[in-house]
Amino acid sequence: GFLADWKNCDLGHLGSLDWQGLFLDFVASSSLLSLAEDDIMLYFAVNLALGCGLRRSEIAAIKISDFDFQKGLLNISRAMVYGKGVDIEKETKTKSGKRSIVIPTGVLEAVRKVQKYKMKCRTKHPEKYHESDYLYVDEYGRNLHVSTTTNRWLKWLQKHPDIKKISITALRHT
Question: CA within 20 to 30 Å of 118's CA: 66, 67, 84, 107, which one?
Answer without folding.
Answer: 84
